[in-house]
Please model this.
Amino acid sequence: MSAPASTAKESATLLIVYEEEDARERLRKIFEDAGYRALTVSDAPAALRIIHLEPCDLVVLDLEIPGVDALALCRLLRAQPATSTMPVVVLSDSSAESRKADAFAAGADDFITKPSNPDELVSRVTSQLRSAQREWDLIGSNRELRFLADLGRDLLRAIEPEQLVRRVAGSTYEGTGAVLCAAFVTLSTDSETGCVFDREGSAEDTSLIHLERLQKWLASEGASAPILMTDKQNFFLREDLHLVEYAVPLRFGGRAQGALVVAFDRREDLGETECRLVDAAAQQAALASHISSLYQAARESSTTLAKEVDRRTAEAEAQRRFTEAIIDSLPLSLYAVDSEYRIVAWNRNRELGELGIPRGSALGKNIFNVLTLQNREVLSEEFARVFESGEIERIEQEATRANGEIKHWLISKIPMRIDNSGGVSHVIAVGEDITTRVEANQAVARAEKLAAIGRLAAGVVHEINNPLATISACAEALESRLQEGAFSKIETAGALDDLREYLGLIRSETFRCKSITNGLLDFSRARASEHALLDLADVIHSAARLLAHQQRDRHVDFQIQTPNDPLPPLSGDAGQLQQAIIALATNAVDAMPYGGTLTISARYEGGDVLVEVSDTGVGIAPENIAKIFEPFFTTKEVGRGTGLGLAVCYGILTEHGGSLDVQSTPGIGTTFTITLPAVKEIGESKA
Ligand code: ADP
Ligand code: MG
Model:
């Protein structure tokens, strides 16, 4: 099927096929007078030849031509694509109905009986030309519509610039019958995409495009409208054969972001229809490329966004782990609750120990449901106070562990504000084990107290010993004088007896005072000792000998347990250490008035020499344990105890860098443990 050679009646070309020359010329004259161009032939072969050489718009065919049957020619024209829609008007001598029917069946468009009226002839040919033109127009717009619909649908799916240029170039190449077709877009400054369909219809990249020239044009003012070029100098496509180019800018929002270029070998191949198609395709492509650029931008920003989110998440996670490591490394047990009393932090130390709870069982839970061993009312009051006042609360607590060990804790409840303007949002509870500090403080206080008492005792002893010596000397002198009868003049024998008795009393009480002052002296002297290397086993054995000697009348069984190998040496004052062991053993014997076993044992353990003095006596009441080391504390009857034994012991051992501990169960017995540091290397003394 080909387009009518001419669209207007004035310039239409008619082919007249008529054997008889006169009639043929008459017909030519009629049509030429009517403004048509008329070609004439006398038979069918000549007609076919001329149709192939020159485009005709209509055939006027005489049914009576010689040779090939006119109806056969008619059928042939219909069968060939190039002439299938060309109107054929037949002229016939016969007006028989059967003749007409044959003619229409062979494809004729009109049937005129001779002789015909010239006016009728012209008007019927004109009418045929018009309807052919209308049909052609219809076919043309159908084709355009289909092309645009197909392209639109294709572009909807072309979201990537590469797909877009390929589809536009491909469809336009097909739709216009161009020999070359190129589509090109620049969506951002650094991305140019193009596609060219060449003569063979294969797609290529931008190598066939004069990119610089094209971009220069797109940047110029000229790119506001399509451009038709016949000067090869200016062509956008690198190819020598084509003679005409038509380029349409892809404009959107005032910017030419690409172009659609078609090329033809002949100027007449680029008709109005082709231009319209390319214009419409360019419009659609401009919109699609705008959408594509939006999509690219959205995709880019979503990738950046995703990367940014990933980066921030990783950062936050690292920060969280860091913070967690900090609170886990603190030598404190720590947890935090929010204003709903939900646990939001729980460090590693809070997981450890007897009262430790795993983090997993605590986080996110209500604090009162987790710390069930604590008094709920007290705990909630403490928290409430901190939330309300915003001030730190500190409490010292004492806890006895399962093994009887006493632990001291400093519990702080610290208010926390997430933003500075608001109220307390969280409370951090921190528990610090201050046992060592508390014990050290207690030891220092005790040592200071003992030192003060020691100084006092030394002073008192110094002042009292002299008068005591005088008093006892006087009493003894008077007694001997009494014996010599110096007081025989005293009248009554009763008075003499009184005198004797009183003197005896003075002497014994003075003695008692002496033993107290001697004890005080020991106590104050505990600090002024002379150290030498010694084996504690020797000290124990000599103490035991003295004890056995003193306690001969008691029913106490003595056990001495020292290791066979010599103990590591330690540096100390043998006399003082012996005194300490004797003091402990004496107390033990005193605690077993009805007999029992006294065991003194020694061993080496972890760099220290340990001596245990244990008895099976009455034991010490728990409330007295803290007091027994105080000077003058005694539970013994007046005259029997001075309450200085343990105080002296304690002083001696502290002075030796050691310690004295006690463990006692009333009714079962008591064990005192002396711990003294061994000398690590001979010659190195710790004193
Ligand atoms: P004293 O023996 O003069 O009373 P100490 O300082 O030696 O003074 O002892 C103080 C107190 O400690 C004793 O009175 C006694 O109550 C108690 N005590 C010391 N050792 C023992 C022991 N082995 N068994 C029971 N109680 C003891
Ligand atoms: Mg004693």
About this structure: The first helix runs from residue 21 to 33.
